[in-house]
Amino acid sequence: MQYLIYLLVYPVIWVISMLPFRLLYLFSDFVYFIVYRVIRYRKKTVRENLILALPHLSDQERLIVEKKFYHHICDMFLEMIKTMNISKEEICKRFVFKNIEVYKELEKQGKSVAVICSHYASYEWIISMNYYSDVAGYGIYKQLKNPYFDKLVRKIRSRFNAKLITTKQTVPTIINNNKNNVLALYGFASDQSPKAKGAMHWSKFMGIEVPVHVGAEMLSKRYNMNLVYLNTKKVSRGHYEATLEILSDNPKEVPNFELTDQYLKLLEKQIYEAPEFYLWTHKRWKYRRDNV
């Protein structure tokens, strides 16, 4: 059944990937209508999240954010599909690293680099950073249940010279690279919710105390990696800018969880500035101190 679904859907995906950007965004407007008005995809979750995270806004203001968010997520989903056939020149024009020289200087130190990012703006095109790297690049992702679509996602993202590894493969990969003196670039999206039971650290995120992922910080400490935050902004439809901010070039000297808290504060600042570009469909605040 999973293979049949893949066979039926793949031709549609391929056709979408061949659309020029102007038609792609016209189609995105149609998809928005279906997703937001007809299917009402996770609308309840989105509204609950917006009330929790942005209580200072009025109902009308949150509704504006909600509609803009659905427009954005439809754009981003189709941009991911477009990645199947986008050229290197095109993606580098549309996703610009404003200070890539910061990363190049870190590379010269002879240490691996952990880039910590979030589900904000375009997290699909972040992987194009590998074009600027002289070392192996690894994107850490959550494996899809459908093995055929999982293979497709891996194929799409590997176009950027990246090696995709699952969350379970992350530690063994880093250990193996470290043992063989292989320098690498690792990308972590660390803003989603871990399970509350056994969480190493709780922190305030958007004013709510929640369990947080600390893997990027802990692995940076253990394997002496530079830790960098990637601040991505949406400039216009289909155009993004990313700025690298060094959290620490010696994480071992920083008290535990301080770097994770610093990352969350930087992300909060982004969300408050333009909340419509954050991923509101996931239950980020499912576990809270007041209900665990």
Query: What characterizes the major β-sheet?
Result: 7 strands, mixed
The mean pLDDT is 94
Binned, the helix content reads: 40-55%
Give a count of the beta strands, DSSP E runs of length 2 or more: 9
Order of helices and strands: HHHHHEHEEHEHEEEHEEH
Rg from Cα: 19 Å
Number of alpha- plus pi-helical segments = 10
Protein name: Lipid A biosynthesis acyltransferase
Main location: membrane
Keywords: Acyltransferase, Cell inner membrane, Cell membrane, Membrane, Transferase, Transmembrane, Transmembrane helix
Organism: Flavobacterium aquariorum
Quick description:
The chain is α/β, with parallel strands linked by helices and 292 residues long. It is 46% helix and 18% strand. It has one domain (2-291).
